[in-house]
Amino acid sequence: MADGPKQRIVEARLKLRERFLAKMHASPGLADARPMGSGPPNRHGMPKLPPGQHLAKDWPVLDLGVHPEVAQAEWRLTVDGAVEAPLALDWVDFQALPQTEDVSDFHCVTTWSLMDATWRGVRLSEVLAAAHPHAGATHLMVHGYDGYSTNLPLEEALKDDVLLVHTFEGRPLPREHGGPVRLITPQLYAWKGSKWVSRLEVLTADRPGFWEERGYSNSAHPWRDDRYS
Ligand SMILES: Nc1nc2c(c(=O)[nH]1)N[C@H]1C(S)=C(S)[C@@H](COP(=O)(O)O)O[C@H]1N2
Ligand SMILES: [Mo]
User: Fold this and answer.
1) Vertex 18, ends 21 and 142: CA angle to 5°?
2) Number of Cβ within a 10 Å radius of residue 191
3) How far, in Å, is the centroid of ligand 2 from the Cα of 11?
4) 192 alpha carbon to ligand 2 midpoint, in Å?
5) Which of 4, 36, 98, 182 is the most exposed place for a label (fewest CB within 10 A)?
6) Using a 6 Å cutoff on CB, does residue 179 contact ligand 1?
7) Domain boundaries, the chain
8) Three-class SS of residue 118?
9) Nearest ligand to residue 165 Cα
10) Closest residue CA from atom 24 of ligand 1
11) 146 CB within 6 A, ligand 1
12) pLDDT band for position 52 (50/70/90)?
């Protein structure tokens, strides 16, 4: 992608974030004034593990049991709903977006945590900004190729560590973990990150996703032990 379009996406992202900055800072996550949890402080000055979590040895696989096979060449990501400019990105479009590398943690509500994982991908905020959400946009429904869905308030979705990842520890994200592309939400429980992501539906009101409809917490903050509603 030429510098012009990239620059425009970066600017659109900053503008969109500005609308949600106050809410982003008010939500817990890594800015929690009184985090629960155990162990010495981690790299964010938070307790090493959220309450009730233990370190996973390997990265477990957890999902509804269907692992859709989506080849890079067939993968599409649509962004629609309350947006000015609906998008349908293919693999080449996606790779042309600004790429980010980050180290973050992954907390599954079933009590295992993966710590200090290295990811590469595209900030969700960049993709959302490129679609220009309406002024009244408040939430997001993230859909997966397996029929999964999970909802996020935009102030969580726009956080800098929320990434659409294609690479884990320097290797392509394995299919069983959601490859070619999945979402990660390091400041929320991992069910908020859809594997095999297919569609970002921008909403003007909140709506529960698959697990949220079945009793999982709508907010899902690991440092508040916020698992079920
Ligand atoms: N598309 C899709 N995404 C999903 C799920 C799913 O069933 N389908 N399960 C969620 C749950 S409950 C967790 S804990 C994580 C697990 O990711 P992993 O299998 O890579 O460890 O993915 C989340 N994303
Ligand atoms: Mo989970």
Assistant:
1) 75
2) 23
3) 34
4) 9
5) 4
6) no
7) 3-224
8) strand
9) 1
10) 194
11) yes
12) very high
